Queue: 3 jobs
Job 1
Amino acid sequence: MENGVVLFIGCIAGIVTGLIGASGVMVVVPAFVMLGYATSEAIGASLFIDTIASLVVAWTYFQNKKLNLKQGIWIAIGSVGGAQIGSLISPLIPDVGLNSAFSIFLVITAVIFWFRGVNIGVPDLNGNDGAARQSHIVKLLRSNVVVSGLLLGILVGILSGLLGAGGGVLILLILVFVMQYNMHEGIGTSTLIMAFTAASGTIGHAISSNLPFKAAIYGAIGTVIGGRFAARFANKVNEKVLSKVVGGVFAALAVTMLIAR
């Protein structure tokens, strides 16, 4: 029975990744915690499932020529190292503290999704009329994409190892608003980088014995099905409406996790 539930959870996580390039962590971790796994184990499983989902989705975007690692490679390198740091710290944090931190992460992610399609004083995706509104921080980051990519990648990696997320949302924001990728290339490239980050975090959790292999494998099987199907139809989805729905779901999950502990 549990294997079937985990398979379904993986499928939903794959759909989330395939449609909007986000980590399935928001689905996997709360569900695994509710199944009785420790938060650190749920995070380890989430990273493993994220790795498989991201590879499947990235391959689909690559087939449609919507993947560009020219500048994103520096984020990938930084995130791999950062994920090791985060995964080593994760087991040292009590479940209650880790659970609360994860809930806060869910709330922040929900807000990002809810307002994702809204222009809030940053350059538009095509770079039109954006120069006057660029903050000094963004200009500084764009002045040296190698250094900024590495530093931002390390930060994303640490958060990924701690919270079990591949960092897809954060990577996407960096690619679009710092590296000036268009949205399609941003999603495709962020999922590939997310695969590297999640794989690094998975190794760290496996070394720390916080990876339930059987459950993670069943979840990965489900994510292949959901991720491949969703990625094929990603361009047909109304992104603004979908972002609001997913943001609302993530916020609900955050509240559920805070109440559950």
Job 2
Amino acid sequence: MTVPGPIQDRTTALSRVITLVAVIVPFVGVASAMNLLWGVALRPIDLVVLAGMYLVCGVGITVGFHRLFSHRSFKAGPVVRATFGILGCMTLQGPITQWVTDHRRHHAMSDREGDPHSPHLASGTLAPLRGLLHAHMGWLFVTKGTSRDARLGRDLRVDPVVRVVDRLYLFWVALSLGIPFLIGWLIGGVALGVEVFVWGGLMRLFLFQHATFSVNSICHTFGRRDYASDDESRNVALLAIPTLGEAWHNNHHAFPGSAIHGLGRRQIDLSGALISGLERLGLVWDVKRPTGKRMARRALTHAD
């Protein structure tokens, strides 16, 4: 099978500017919180909104963009699909179509030439470090959005739910930042609104962005390989909770169609648990899981 090529050699200038804003603004917010608010303006409401928005918007990426739209590992009706799509957009990681097509290309060329964010393709002095930095954030300014080939995203482009959600992407971004401010303002006025905006908006985006970035960088460099896969994907237990289960990355690359990534008894997978819960409620169906026989066939006897 011929892998579709990128639609352009580099990320567009507009995309680089948008990405820069999405990465820098949360960082500035974190710096502001550390320098101006720490010990002065940190209240329970800030932590509640931060944690709540982190989880709710985070599953938009892990369950929605990744397991539903990218890998079609389960099925859901239009309301559930739209909800996960909107929540994913609220993480500021791009519209559904862009995120999914980049991710599908990553799987098609994982850790080989053409992978948009492999840490193993750098050359020259300090190649391992340069590769790690590229996989973590550098690719956002170089190869992000270059994979929107029709063959990678044909199903998305004819999907009315995806088309509507993508068209309103900037609105979902504004909503993502506006909700924390609104909660704080309703409880304690403008000053508390700004405070909650910093913690539940900017800090939350900063933390979740780097949790997601770590899957591309750390989980392709360090950790344990439990199953055979044609790349360097690895499981990193310490990142399992902040990534909502995505850090069982070797499991995922070994069984990319599986809706559940935490395949071991002690492998916490919050996104997989949510999918299983929605399945029991009848809100999602055809949830894919690898059989014990398939897992046994791919299991590595000596994990590295």
Job 3
Amino acid sequence: MRTINISEFRDAQEVLKSRDLAQALYEKGGVVMDDVLISLHGEEHHKRRVTEFAVFGRGFFRYYEQEVFPPTLEQTLAPYLEAGEADLVEFGYRVTMNLTADFAGIDRPAQNTEETERLLKLVKKFSEGATLVHSTRDPEEVRTEVRAALEEFDDAFLTPSRQRRMRIVEAFERGDVDESELPRDVMTILLKNREKLKLPDDVFRRELAFYLQAGAHSTANSTTHAMHEILSWCARHPDARARLETDSTFLQRCVHESLRLHPASPVAWRRAACPVSTSRRGEIETGDRVVVDLHQANRDRSIFGDDADVFNPHRELPQAVWPFGLTFGYGMHACMGRDLDGGVVPKDGAPPEKRQLGIVAMLVGELLRHGARSHPDLKPVADTSTERNNWARYPVVFQSATGLES
């Protein structure tokens, strides 16, 4: 069995699109990733993806962006504004954890600081387990911690949330409540389709933990990277700040450019379930591992230009190439939350009220509106617990600024 390395954009697209190459990145992180949606292949993957995608129906992301997220963002940001400073990593995790818990279906009845801290600690531990392939820590030590976190999550959050939704689903099945009264979240969809999916309790638990960590981890890191790139860009182009505070389309372009440079996972791994023919890389044999370097593919100069390694929101792109590259994946394992995180690239002339900016751009825009700037005394700190290019801390201060308008 061979390992085939791919770093060119078009080759990466072809490989990620293949239905005969199974997900292989999360084998070391099986303690939290075994049999969850992203790790499945073939018919099982298709069945669960189609079932869960029902949550993300037409208008779902716009509903979250316009109705659910703004009050969550305002409430989470308020204490940082009062303090006059924030750690972007901590802030990003807090605000996105609440959002992710909502659409995953995890109740937080107390709605207090202690409850938030407890769930946040668990979600971070799930993320550490999921990305174990890039961890610099002892793998068995991490797995032990993740198992304990899953047990605590089950007792404190999952079981009460599941029991409440099960009562509502059973009432719906008896005809006592209308379908519109069901919670609009992943857990409810899984319970509603429990006979079709037949998920064992441990898989059910990991599936919900996966949704929590995937949403919070990637969005928090993407927000921090975007702020770093934008603040650095503004330092070199002082006039850009004013435009970012008044032009939401340009703001989204800046966020997409940062997403291109900083994919949540720098690589995607696939394993051939059968022989696969590729147009440029020849035959891939059964059992071969294909390592797709998303970081390099997103910097392919033949696609993104001679300055592909640098942040340039004015970049001209070839037709049918997303401005964020392959950051959200491609093919059957493409991220289902792409439009929630990254928004939708607006069509020319689309009115502001019809645009979907994306959660990351909303976060960045709100931080800029409140005058977020690099902390004058505290420097950002890289995360040394992982080989991924993430920040452990990113301090900013807030100063008065003009309002952000569409």
